[in-house]
Design brief:
mainly alpha, elongated
Length: about 50
């Protein structure tokens, strides 16, 4: 049985993909905004799921 990733982990993974795309396209402003969003999500306390 594999454990499902948390909702927050799924959002961070999606944002990481978006960050990679922004960097690849040379969009520094978008990359900065997404980077900040990831940092904020990682700094939040984990809420109980369910």
């Amino acid at each position: 049985m594999t454990e499902e990733p948390s909702r927050r982990a799924a959002v961070v993974a999606s944002l990481a993909s978006t960050l990679s795309r922004a960097v690849a396209l040379g969009d520094e402003e978008a990359a900065r905004v997404v980077h900040e969003a990831i940092g904020r999500l990682l700094g939040l306390p984990v809420a109980p799921e369910g």
